[in-house]
Amino acid sequence: MALSQFSERLGLTLEPFESVGRVSQRSQAPSDDAPIRLDCSIMTGPSPSLIERPVSWVALAGFMGTGKSRIGWELSRALALHFVDTDKLIARVAGRPVPELFAQEGEARFRAFEREVVRRVVRLDYAVVSLGGGAFVAPENRQTLLARGPVVVLWASPETILKRTQHTDRPLLKTEQPLERIRGLMAEREGAYREGTIHVSSDGRASSEVVDEIVGKLWHWQQDEAEDGHEHTPGITQLQGGHEAD
Ligand SMILES: Nc1ncnc2c1ncn2[C@@H]1O[C@H](COP(=O)(O)OP(=O)(O)OP(=O)(O)O)[C@@H](O)[C@H]1O
Ligand SMILES: O=C(O)C1=C[C@@H](O)[C@@H](O)[C@H](O)C1
Ligand SMILES: [Mg+2]
């Protein structure tokens, strides 16, 4: 699939969120780089503006199998935010699972689609975004994501990563010696992952525990940002008093 066709379909896929956001939350159409608010009235539960949360947008990065998709989903429930998984979004827009895209169109094309998706998901609001394992490695993506909001990096040991990924289809780990491959790729990527805002280990821990730690660290981050005079929570009404972070 050509990049231009992918882009057009990506726009159409996200349009329902974006157009509803304009009607319900904005008095005028957003400019190209303004954040787009998702309409949270389509969510179940209390109104999003009544929920006290540390952020209205957060991304999860890290190596394959560190738990971005699973933890991201659980985090989105905990914060009452929409959930976007970039691999799933790419697969949906391209009409094929990621491994098939890799096999048929090559990694370079997949990375081009991924860049396009990153450029779009930073315009969403009220969303938890789980990235593909390589998305945060590209400097352009890192810059775009970090300019938007906090990026939580999940970490796990190569052995845990192998255990979690060995019965699934990760094209980059299809090799005779996957543990060596994981160690090598991890060494190449570690510097990029270290540039994340918040770091949390998912190794040997229940996902709920990981989510709790992320939420606690997001509160600390938000407090630090507020003290530094940065405003990172557009549209959020905090009805309660200060949060007692752990
Ligand atoms: N804390 C955890 N404890 C046990 N299993 C976990 C934990 N987190 C994730 N898993 C499991 O590990 C597997 C890989 O997790 P997941 O798909 O969320 O990884 P990912 O970081 O999104 O990987 P990718 O970069 O390839 O998309 C899944 O089966 C998931 O249920
Ligand atoms: O770490 C990576 O480069 C990848 C991770 C997965 O999430 C997919 O995005 C794809 O398999 C590539
Ligand atoms: Mg994933």
From TrEMBL:
Name of the molecule in the record: Shikimate kinase
Gene field: aroK
Function in brief: Catalyzes the specific phosphorylation of the 3-hydroxyl group of shikimic acid using ATP as a cosubstrate.
Pathway: Metabolic intermediate biosynthesis; chorismate biosynthesis; chorismate from D-erythrose 4-phosphate and phosphoenolpyruvate: step 5/7
Organism: Deinococcus peraridilitoris (strain DSM 19664 / LMG 22246 / CIP 109416 / KR-200)
Amino acids binding ATP: G65, T66, G67, K68, S69, R70, R170, R205
Catalytic activities: shikimate + ATP = 3-phosphoshikimate + ADP + H(+)
Region span, Disordered: 225-246
Residues engaged in binding substrate: D87, R111, G133, R189
Record's keyword terms, sorted: Amino-acid biosynthesis, Aromatic amino acid biosynthesis, ATP-binding, Cytoplasm, Kinase, Magnesium, Metal-binding, Nucleotide-binding, Transferase
One term under GO cellular component: cytosol
Entries under Gene3D superfamilies matching the protein: P-loop containing nucleotide triphosphate hydrolases
Residues that coordinate or bind Mg(2+): S69
Protein location: Cytoplasm
Summary of subunit composition and partner proteins: Monomer.
Listed PROSITE patterns: SHIKIMATE_KINASE
UniProt family annotation: Belongs to the shikimate kinase family.
Protein EC: 2.7.1.71
UniProt-listed Pfam families: SKI
Top class in the EC scheme: transferase
Organism ancestry: Bacteria, Thermotogati, Deinococcota, Deinococci, Deinococcales
One of the record's GO molecular function terms: shikimate kinase activity
Keyword Amino-acid biosynthesis listed: yes
Cofactor descriptive note: Binds 1 Mg(2+) ion per subunit.
GO terms of biological process kind: amino acid biosynthetic process; aromatic amino acid family biosynthetic process; chorismate biosynthetic process
Names of required cofactors: Mg(2+)
The keyword Transferase belongs to this UniProt entry's keyword annotation: yes
